[in-house]
Amino acid sequence: MAKLHLITYGCQMNEYDSERVAGLLAKQEYQLTDREDDADLILINTCSIREKAEEKVFSRLGRLRDLKQQNPELIIGVMGCMAQLQQGAILKRAPVVDLVFGSPAIARVGELVARVRRDRRPVLDTGEAPLSKLTATIPRSDPLKAFVTVMEGCDKACTFCVVPLTRGRERSHTPEAILEEIRGLARQGYREVTLLGQNVNAYGHDLTPPTDLAALLELVNEVDGIERIRFTTSNPVNLTSRLIRALRDVPKACEYLHLPLQSGSDRLLARMNRGYTRARYLELIGELQETVPGIALSTDLMVGFPGESEDDFEATVEMLERVGYDNLFAFRYSPRPRTPAAAFAEQVPEGDKARRLTRLLDVANRVGAEKNRALEGRTMEVLVDGVSKKDPRELAGRTRCNRVVNFDGQGRRLYGERVPVRITQAMQHSLKATLVPAETPKEALCGLR
Ligand code: SAH
Ligand code: F3S
């Protein structure tokens, strides 16, 4: 049997695509291997969001040159966003590559690999294709939690972002296709699904008849066996009161929202073409906190966007403190090919970006730690998913607000179960807790529904 080694960079959507590719190739008798020196086919699923992500791929390809010399039959392919953005340039810069294909071509992966094998010539396929829900897959890396792509692409035009170039326009999968996939996951024992889309809260506007994410959450809520539903990434522009109410009213929808802010400065938000102001964003946060008390919030922030002054940057720090994010991802702005911001004047020196990032992360750690401490003494529901990284005698799991909790399971077999625990101590990146006696009446447990 031929062997496939799959390397995945980037976001959860790439993880999902890699599972499809492995599933499709399994039908052609490609078995997955962890070892690249054992493989007949190596595929790298790539990310273009920042320059660093692309550099990692080129240096990995450089290291694969020796392997190809030892085994000239080895086929090396590059797929995903970088394939779509850089296209033929990849073959030029890394002649070791035999195959380049974008995400629309995933359904054809078997045919593309066969063509390389037969013709012994590089193959490039970065064309468009109609959206289809691929059912082929392999077991997910986590047996309890699965990602499910519900829509592809992005119709926005943030001036820094390559996603509209790499993933195309917004196209939603039908609720029927999504539900079928999720029912299958439930039958296999999965307990939690995360619905994925670059702009997931714009879900459904392109379908006939149109629908929305709130309606989809209600449908997924009906799937027996699935206990928790998450979704990412939401865009502030498309965040409706209806979706906010669904976070409160749909029992399995977790009280957690990732809502990228990018910058706290109105001047920069306008230059980024984000479509909202700081005041509008705060209004949404107010509505979220009022409608879903205790909701956990996370965000993406960027430092060093062209023209960012110290004052603009401080406005971002101030927003971070004001909103009180539970978690965040912060990035240095990275100019990307074919995006408007790459040509903007006033690019910020790398030294300033690095200094701002360090300061931002310091504040984020302090704010996150305060939020963690506020949970001490609370009783929360944990979905048990394994043992503690530090102490294998302890069980580990996540709260509905996605925090890691470690606790003494008192010898009980709780894997895959939802149990109430009382938070005893907030640590830097996790919470310590104790099991709450089973006889505690459910109504008395805050954080449980
Ligand atoms: N769809 C999401 C973003 C997807 S990209 C949204 O609505 O915001 C994930 C994150 O990467 C973005 O939120 C942004 O913070 C960061 N990012 C995107 N382009 C970037 C660039 N050119 N340089 C640095 N960070 C970038
Ligand atoms: Fe990118 Fe903006 Fe869409 S960050 S993914 S263009 S919403």
In short:
By secondary structure, the chain is α/β, with parallel strands linked by helices.
Explain this structure to me?
This protein is an alpha/beta fold and 449 residues long. It folds into 3 domains: 2-125, 3-Layer(aba) Sandwich (Rossmann fold), CATH 3.40.50.12160; 145-373, pyruvate-formate lyase- activating enzyme, CATH 3.80.30; 379-435, Beta Barrel (OB fold (Dihydrolipoamide Acetyltransferase, E2P)), CATH 2.40.50. It contains 13 helices and 19 strands. It has helices at residues 12-26, 51-70, 81-86, 88-93, 109-119, 163-167, 175-187, 213-221, 241-249, 266-272, 278-291, 310-323, 350-373; strands spanning 2-8, 30-32, 41-46, 75-80, 99-101, 123-125, 145-149, 151-152, 171-172, 192-196, 228-232, 256-258, 296-303, 327-332, 379-387, 395-399, 404-408, 418-426, 431-435. The strands form 5 sheets. Strands 2-1-3-4-5-6 form a 6-stranded parallel sheet, sandwiched between helices. A 5-stranded mixed barrel has the order 15-16-17-19-18. The N and C termini lie far apart (49 Å). The model has no long low-confidence stretch (mean pLDDT 94). FE3-S4 cluster binds at residues 154, 156, 158, 161, 163-164, 198-199, 235. FE3-S4 cluster is lined by residues 154, 156, 158, 161, 163-164, 198-199, 235.
